Each structure stands twice: as structure tokens, then as C-alpha cells.
């Protein structure tokens, strides 16, 4: 087959592309050039604003001294961007520095606005990745399959945990859980019905993406259980694993009110120590936010400092 060549940045190899495949634009328009830096600025501002909301002394006082806790926490924090790096590495041969862009993508979603990270990563990919086609389709497909995979896992877990949720008398009516499950099911069904219109990647790539997302969900659930067990070792790890699974179910069902209270009730029923469990949840939420803030400041500054070098 006859090949064309995509113009690559100075010092990088040219990328062959089949005739008929849209090529990445050699000279991005002004808004594309400034899209990622603008979002990086927003991440930096949001991270600095969050600094005022954190009670650092109280947070540090609650943190366990065990090095194992920090190792597990950091691994669990890095798994989401690492899983996406694996996906885009397979799709685009994404370089190692793409991991930092995926970290910024997560921070944008967490401290700015949901799916703003996808906008940031799209802009970054247009400027930095030597691609044979526009990256929008791949970024879109990865986001859609992430939501769909999470929904499917949630439905399976709802079915498995329904007897426990029903018997705990936590204010969760069967009708409310049913409506929530219906919303989740509808989203997954729409993805399946309109997959040919919504998804643009080949079937083989879509299967790979779904498998990586599934592995991410399982890994983060298990690591969350291990973190809780390290903080409150009196309860068996199996109980915390059950709680981590149930927390995922409760957090993803869209119509349930007071989700933290529901989780506290589950924890009190299974392991007792309701006050300690509340502190545990607050600790991990605070540590995650603190990590967002510190990375947001560091990565925001580094991104903005390199803007001129990439123009």
C-alpha cells in the first residue's frame, strides 16, 4: 500500500500513514495551541484555591506512620493515569512524558470540571503526539468505555450485594435502588445500541480498552480495601474488601442520597467503630485532595514554564 508521511517535530522520526487516513494538522490553529496551557493555568489556580480549604495539621496528625500505607496509597492514586497510559501507548505509541499529561487530565477532571481533562488531553495530543489520525476519536472512545465498563461492573455488584443492601435497613428502598440501576443500565444499553455511531476505533482496540478499564476498577477496589485495613487492622481484610466493593456500588448509583452516610452505616454493621470509619473516610479524602493540590501546583507550573519552548 502506498504511504504518505506525516510531518513530525524537529528531531523526531516521521510517521508513515496510509493514504486516505486523515493526517494531524502540521500547523495547529491558535485556539488549539493555547488550549492545553489555558487549562493548565486553570488547574494551577484551582489547586492554589484548594490550599486554603485543607487543614494540613489535622490531616498530618491522622496519617499512619507505616511506609506500606504510603506505598499502597501512591500506587492506588497512580493506577488510573497509568491504565490510560497503557491504553494510549498501545494506540499511539505514546511516549513516557505522556504520563504527566494524563496526570494533568485527571487533575482537571477532579478539581475543575468533569471531562475537562479529556479536553486538555485532546489539546495536548494534537500538539505533542506524532499521530496518523486526529486523536479526538480515541480520547472519546476511551472516556465512553470507561463509563460503560464502570456501569456494567456496578450492575453486577448490585445484583451480588442486593441481599445485604436490602437487609441492612439503611433507608435504601428497593424502588430507589431499582431506579438508580435503571439509569445505569440505560446508559450502558445506549452505548451498546449506538456503538457504531459513538465509537470510532476498531473492535480489537475497543476490547483492549475495556479490559484495561476492568483491570483498573478491580485493582483500585482491592487497594482501597488494603488501605482501610492498614488504618484499622482490627477488622479482617475480607470485610474491608466487601466494604470497598459496596462503596463502589453506592458511589456509582446516581439517585441515592447521603452516600457517605450509607457507607458509614455499612461499615458500622460489618466492622463496628463507626466514628473511626468516618475518620478513615475523611483521611483518605483529605489525602487525595492534598495530592491533587500538590500535583496541580507542580504540574501546572512545569507546563506553563515549558509553553514557550513548545511554540
UniProtKB/TrEMBL annotation:
The chain crosses the membrane at residues 34-51, 58-79, 142-164, 176-194, 206-231, 283-305. Keywords: Membrane, Transmembrane, Transmembrane helix. This is Flippase-like domain-containing protein.
Amino acid at each position: 500500500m502506498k504511504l504518505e508521511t506525516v510531518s513530525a517535530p524537529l528531531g523526531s522520526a516521521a510517521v508513515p500513514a496510509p493514504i486516505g487516513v486523515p493526517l494531524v494538522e502540521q500547523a495547529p490553529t491558535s485556539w488549539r495551541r493555547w488550549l492545553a496551557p489555558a487549562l493548565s493555568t486553570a488547574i494551577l489556580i484551582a489547586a492554589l484555591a484548594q490550599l486554603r480549604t485543607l487543614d494540613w495539621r489535622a490531616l498530618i496528625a491522622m496519617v499512619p506512620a507505616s511506609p506500606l500505607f504510603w506505598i499502597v496509597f501512591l500506587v492506588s492514586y497512580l493506577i488510573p493515569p497509568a491504565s490510560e497510559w497503557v491504553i494510549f501507548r498501545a494506540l499511539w505509541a505514546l511516549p513516557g512524558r505522556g504520563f504527566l499529561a494524563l496526570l494533568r487530565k485527571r487533575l482537571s477532571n477532579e478539581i475543575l470540571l468533569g471531562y475537562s481533562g479529556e479536553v486538555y488531553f485532546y489539546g495536548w495530543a494534537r500538539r505533542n503526539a506524532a499521530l496518523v489520525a486526529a486523536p479526538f476519536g480515541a480520547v472519546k472512545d476511551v472516556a465512553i468505555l470507561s463509563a460503560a465498563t464502570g456501569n456494567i461492573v456496578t450492575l453486577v455488584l448490585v445484583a451480588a450485594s442486593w441481599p445485604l443492601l436490602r437487609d441492612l435497613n439503611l433507608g435504601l428502598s428497593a424502588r430507589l435502588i431499582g431506579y438508580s440501576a435503571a439509569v445505569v443500565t440505560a446508559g450502558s444499553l445506549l452505548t451498546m445500541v449506538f456503538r457504531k455511531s459513538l465509537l470510532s476505533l476498531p473492535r480489537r482496540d475497543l476490547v483492549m480498552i475495556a479490559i484495561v478499564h476492568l483491570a483498573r476498577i478491580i485493582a483500585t477496589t482491592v487497594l482501597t480495601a488494603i488501605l482501610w485495613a492498614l488504618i484499622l487492622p482490627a477488622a479482617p481484610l475480607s470485610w474491608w474488601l466487601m466494604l470497598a466493593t459496596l462503596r463502589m456500588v453506592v458511589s456509582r448509583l446516581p439517585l441515592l442520597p447521603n452516600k457517605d452516610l450509607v457507607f458509614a452505616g455499612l461499615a458500622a454493621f460489618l466492622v463496628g467503630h463507626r466514628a473511626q470509619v468516618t475518620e478513615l473516610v475523611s483521611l483518605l479524602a483529605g489525602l487525595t485532595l492534598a495530592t491533587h493540590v500538590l500535583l496541580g501546583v507542580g504540574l501546572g507550573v512545569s507546563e506553563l514554564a515549558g509553553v514557550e519552548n513548545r511554540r
